[in-house]
Amino acid sequence: MKKLIVIRHAKSSWSNSQLLDINRPLNNRGQRDAPLMAKLISRECEAPEIILCSSSKRTKQTVKYFSDEWGLENEKIQYMDALYHASTDQLMYHIRRIEENLESVALVGHNPGLTYLVDQLVRGNTPDNIPTSGVAILQSESDFWSSFDAAKVSLIKYFYPKSHLDIYN
User: Fold this and answer.
1) Domain ranges of the chain
2) pLDDT 10s per residue in the chain (169 long)?
3) Rounded distance, CA 73 to CA 67, Å?
4) I need a labelling partner for 15 at 20 to 30 A (CA). Which of 27, 57, 63, 139 fits?
5) Is 143 helix (H, G, I), strand (E, B) or coil?
6) How do 153-159 and 135-140 pair as beta strands?
7) Rounded Cα–Cα distance for residues 10 and 86 (Å)
8) Non-local CB neighbours of 48 within 8 Å, separated by 6+ positions
9) Residue among 33, 24, 60 nearest 163 (CA)
10) pTM for this structure?
11) Strand 77-80 vs strand 50-54: parallel, antiparallel, or unpaired?
12) Domain 2-168 maps to which CATH number in 3.40.50.300, 3.30.565.60, 3.40.50.1240, 3.20.20.60?
């Protein structure tokens, strides 16, 4: 069985209209939510063997909080331009190409692709929208990433900042 940890980047800043979208950093809320969600997820879920991460500034900042909490070295993070605003089909393309010896992988990216991906994989009973800093933990009955979506995929756990307001206390 394969586990996919889907993480949407934390809330980003729109304050500088001169920045390209890919260069937008986290805003104050993102800088507050990401470390709290990372701490929560690290308690709920073992560290993935690798993390596939969009190359945007906000995903890089978000993944840093998670990798630190999981104690993962930078070599375990693969930054990929192809994940920046990737469609569901593009995301599945990369999931199917994950090395088969890996059992658990995290994917850090953007909406709408991540929400659509989770909906497509789980086939209903999914969140309408994965909010910023949201995390969906999926498990496939397949033993192969190349057929991850062909087998039954279950939503094991789903977390987002407002669902865990107690983490702010």
Assistant:
1) 2-168
2) 999 999 999 999 999 999 999 999 999 999 999 999 999 999 999 999 999 999 999 999 999 999 999 999 999 999 999 999 999 999 999 999 999 999 999 999 999 999 999 999 998 777 889 999 999 999 999 999 999 998 899 999 999 998 765 555 4
3) 7
4) 63
5) coil
6) antiparallel
7) 17
8) 3, 5, 70, 72, 76, 104, 105, 106
9) 33
10) 0.95
11) parallel
12) 3.40.50.1240
Q: Can you read off the two tokens belonging to residue 124?
A: 């209903």
**DSSP secondary structure string for all residues of 7-56:** EEPPPB----TTS-GGG--B-HHHHHHHHHHHHHHHHHSPPPSEEEEESS
Edge-to-edge order in the sheet of strand 50-54: 77-80, 50-54, 104-109, 2-8, 135-140, 153-159
> Which residue is it, tokens 């990433």?
145
Length of the chain as a residue count: 169
| Strand-pair partners of 159 | 135
Amino acid at the residue 76:
K
